[in-house]
Design a protein that fits this description.
Layout lengths: L2 E9 L9 E6 L2 H12 L3 E6 L16 E13 L2 E18 L5 E7 L8 H19 L6 H8 L4 H11 L4 H9 L3 H53 L6 H12 L4 H15 L6 H15 L12 H11 L4 H17 L6 E5 L8 H10 L3 E5 L7 H4 L12 H9 L5 E5 L12 H8 L8 E2 L6 E2 L5 E6 L7 H4 L3 E4 L5 H19 L7 E3 L1 H11 L6 H19 L6 E3 L4 H5 L17 E8 L2 E13 L4 E4 L4 H16 L14 E6 L13 H13 L7 E3 L2 E2 L5 E2 L4 H11 L3 E5 L11 H6 L1 E5 L2 H8 L10 H8 L10
Parallel strand pairs: 1-3, 7-12, 7-13, 8-9, 9-12, 14-15, 16-20, 18-19, 20-23, 23-24
Antiparallel strand pairs: 1-6, 2-5, 3-4, 4-5, 5-6, 10-11, 16-17, 17-19, 21-22
Helix pairs in contact: 2-4, 2-6, 4-6, 7-8, 7-9, 8-9, 10-11, 10-12, 17-18, 17-19, 21-22, 22-25
Length: 791
């Protein structure tokens, strides 16, 4: 092969194939100099592809080693650029570069192509030609002269180069084709690349066709609609289309108030005059659908039979007398007056006592629809009041949606977990509830989406809460609080026997003839496997027993399964709780208090230890600020009354007092442990044990007075559950025993006190060794002056 020295011109992304003509534009100084030099001599140059198209001044290392020897046919100079028509001659390989001042020069050698003529090559050429014609039919753009050259009889090598120049390929793919010297391999590669391009062209054509059809259909419908409107105007007949007629009839059937109906008709008129392709048309249509679906004038007729309502409530729930009485009272007043605004009830109590489930029973007793909405974790005000219709995806609030789902304007509407409503930058949902839960305002409830008032005065709202402290005062003032206390053992037994067991028996596909849970077995589960205010965990334990029994039956066991108190451990494992929680012996420095939690009442042990020190008071057990202050108040009372209590006056100078409340991982707070803390400290200082069967609750003052506390019913039930016998309560709490079940009152002995001295006489196992000193007694009993009276 003959070697030649020719100018080298780098190109960024285009490749000149042999036997093809191209028009290129050059602007880089080196390229311009090479073109000028070549044009003045033999007009032959070598075009080589850059490896990186972004490089403006590539070096010899940045160029491929295979290029195209080309002839410059003609050249036009413009401002700083040259447009040149070039024709590819042959593939060449760069052997070496030679030094030159202004452009690249290189020694190149022409590459010999491996061409052969046989039937397979002819078949490949015919297939490639036919496929290219197919691509042109699908809309491929190509120069007409190039197309004619491809369709004419040419050599396989020329055909492959012509087709390669016409395909839409990446620079690296073009370079790969240029470097192929075997004509057969090149034809096969081009066949694959052309097939891919045909698929893309076919898909593009299909998409364009569908888009065109859709556009033509829409344009045709719009044109026909305009023609129809013109015809109607000419005839003087402007009758609404079918959709508008249907909506108008629904608006009339809904029996809205005049104000609301005018608003609906205004929106309907806007929809009628709006193009159906306008995005706002969908929003208006959804709004009107809601308007006609709301029960503006539909009500459920309340049950007039009070005895029947009482029977339904008793069938569904055991106990809960206050809630049942309130519902029966509402029915009685409604029956006499004919109409009454719906009450706003709040069922407050620990989990699992039936707050949510009694809502369904109330709806059944009243003969109304039931709607339940859980408010737990809601932080967006729009969840209550809805979104403005200007927002995409706007919806009405939960209350209006619930009324729509109920289909009546007077359902029983339960707002569950109202104490767990949160607030953040999106607003305060509890404030949005103020209007809905105010009987004086909810007759004109305003939802942001609805934009017209809706009457909620006939809705019976029931809310539930575990604690009342987290409910804002303004909202709490609108609620009628009905407290649900924890169940006693007897109540749990009746509920489990009459309700839970039957329900779980049905859920597990069992029959009475297949399984029997004896009364003693059920009481064993209550006493030794659960300790809660409600019955939710008890139901789980019963379900566990039934699951294991169901497994036996499913395996083919045919005899009746009887679960007694001795068999319970086989199903539920070892006993988790003992019947009594009280200590075995009377202990010095340990008193039993009573506590109230969200889950009901519980007993609390207060332990006191003395150690050498300098009068420091150490408090542990994760106590809250109020409980810490109770400990400090108890210590101040004891120091002030040391002589009367038989304790050395300066005892605190040589010892430290450590007060600990076990279960340190559980936060504890509140003033009601004051009496128990004081008793425990006095016991530790006097070395007199505290009666283990005595529990106490009440706040203590610096003078030793016992003040009233809350949660008496829950605390008393907890004491009864723990096996305690005597309970010390402040005198002012005597009235709270009315709510305590009779079977609990009969098992306990109550002591009502007004001063700490009375507590110590009852709680300590021995009387105090008191040396009476009149002066000390008078000093303590002196009235405490207000700071403003001290001067």
């Amino acid at each position: 092969m003959e070697e030649k020295i020719v100018p080298i011109i780098p190109i960024r992304d285009g490749i000149i194939f042999p036997s093809t003509d191209s028009v290129l534009t050059f602007g880089r100084p080196k390229s311009l100099a090479a073109l000028e030099s070549a044009f003045q001599r033999e007009r032959v140059v070598c075009f080589v592809l850059q490896k990186n198209a972004r490089l403006n001044d590539p070096t010899t290392d940045d160029l491929y080693s295979i290029g195209t020897l080309s002839r410059i046919e003609r050249m036009i100079r413009t401002d700083g650029e040259i447009n040149a028509q070039v024709r590819g001659l042959s593939r060449v390989k760069i052997l070496s570069y030679e030094q030159h001042d202004s452009y690249f020069m290189a020694k190149v050698v022409e590459l010999k192509e491996e061409a052969e003529t046989n039937e397979e090559i002819k078949a490949l050429c015919n297939h490639l030609t036919n496929e290219f014609r197919k691509a042109m039919n699908f809309g491929k753009s190509a120069d007409f002269l190039l197309f004619m050259n491809i369709m004419s009889e040419t050599s396989p090598s020329e055909l492959s180069d012509l087709v390669a120049s016409a395909l839409d390929l990446k620079p690296t793919e073009r370079q790969e084709l240029l470097e192929m010297t075997n004509v057969k391999e090149r034809l096969q590669k081009l066949t694959e690349l052309l097939a891919k391009e045909i698929k893309i062209l076919e898909l593009e054509r299909r998409i364009a066709s569908k888009t065109q059809e859709r556009f033509e259909k829409g344009a045709r419908e719009a044109m026909l609609r305009e023609r129809l409107r013109t015809i109607e105007e000419e005839l003087g007949d402007k009758e609404e289309n079918s959709e508008i007629r249907v909506l108008l009839s629904k608006i009339k059937e809904a029996k809205m108030s005049q104000e609301v109906e005018e608003k609906a008709k205004k929106e309907l008129n806007k929809l009628q005059n709006m193009n159906q392709f306008n995005p706002e048309a969908g929003y208006i249509r959804n709004y009107l659908d809601l308007m006609v679906a709301l029960p503006w004038n539909k009500e459920s007729k309340d049950s007039a039979d009070i005895s029947s309502a009482e029977k339904i409530l008793d069938e569904d729930h055991y106990g809960l007398q206050k809630a049942k009485e309130r519902i029966v009272e509402y029915l009685a007043v409604h029956k006499l007056s004919g109409k009454m605004k719906g009450p706003i009830l709040c069922f407050a109590g620990p989990p699992g006592v039936g707050k949510t489930s009694i809502g369904k029973s109330i709806a059944r007793a009243l003969g109304r629809k039931f709607v339940r909405v859980s408010l737990g974790g809601i932080r967006d005000e729009a969840e209550i009041r809805g979104h403005r219709r200007t927002y995409v995806g706007a919806l009405p609030g939960r209350i209006i949606q619930g009324i729509k789902d109920a289909g009546t304007k007077n359902p029983v509407f339960m707002l569950d977990e109202i104490d767990k409503v949160g607030s953040d930058f999106r607003g305060d949902p509890s404030s949005a509830l103020l209007e809905a839960l105010d009987p004086e305002q909810n007759g004109q409830f305003s939802d942001h989406y609805l934009e017209v008032p809706f009457d909620l005065s006939n809705v019976m709202f029931i809310t539930t809460a575990n604690v009342l402290d987290t409910i804002p005062p303004a909202l709490r003032d609108r609620l009628e609080i009905i407290t649900f206390s924890g169940y006693t053992h007897d109540e749990k037994f009746r509920i489990a026997r009459d309700f839970l067991f039957k329900k779980q028996l049905e859920n597990h596909g069992l029959k009475d003839s297949q399984l029997e849970l004896t009364d003693k077995g059920l009481q064993s589960i209550i006493h030794h496997y659960t300790r809660e205010a409600g019955v939710r965990n008890l139901e789980r334990k019963i379900a566990t027993v039934l699951r294991k029994a169901a497994k036996k039956v499913a395996e083919g066991y045919t005899e009746k399964i009887v679960v007694t108190d001795k068999d319970v451990s086989k199903y539920l494992g070892p006993e988790r709780f003992h019947g009594n929680m009280i200590e075995k012996n009377d202990e010095i420095g340990q008193a039993t208090g009573l506590a109230w939690t969200e889950a009901g009442g519980d007993i609390l042990f207060i332990e006191v230890a003395l150690m050498p020190g300098k009068g420091q008071l150490i408090l542990t057990g994760q106590l809250g600020d109020v409980m810490k202050e109770s400990c400090q108040a108890a210590m101040s009372y004891i120091r002030a009354r040391a002589t009367d209590l038989g304790i050395p006056e300066k005892f605190y100078q040589k010892i430290d007092v450590h007060v600990h409340v076990p279960e340190g991982a559980v936060p504890k707070d509140g003033p009601s442990a004051g009496l128990a803390i004081t008793t425990a400290i006095v016991s530790a200082l006097t070395k007199i044990p505290v009666n283990r069967k005595v529990a106490m609750t009440g706040e203590v003052t610096l003078r030793g007075r016992a003040l009233e506390i809350g949660g008496v019913k829950e605390k008393v039930i907890a004491a009864h559950r723990a096996g305690l016998k005597t309970i010390i309560l402040p005198k002012d709490n005597k009235k709270d025993l009315e709510d305590v079940p009779t079977e609990v009152l009969n098992d306990l002995h109550f002591k009502f006190v007004s001063h700490m001295d009375e507590v110590l006489k009852i709680a300590l196992t021995k009387p105090l060794k008191v040396e009476k000193k009149t002066s000390a007694r008078q000093a303590v009993d002196m009235p405490i002056m207000h700071p403003s009276q001290a001067y």
